[in-house]
Amino acid sequence: MVVTLETLLGITCPLTSIENNLRGVYESTSFLSYWVKQIIYWDSPDQFFIILYCMFLVWTFSMWKFFPPRIKKSAVLPT
Predict the structure, then answer these.
(1) pLDDT at 30 over 60
(2) pTM of the full predicted structure?
């Protein structure tokens, strides 16, 4: 929910800002790091991620509604 709100409000995650500052301009150009970067970091427009985050938020809430977590009575310790 926090990631979706940050994206909708156009706020950069504080951890991302810290990571970018610590990394500086240094980028590794090895073969493995190139492909890991291509797989992990998508170069897509912001609107794509906003829609994706909203879809996952709706999916999560719908799963929570249709399949709520159940507490087993045997899992509760007697007092």
Answers:
(1) no
(2) 0.51
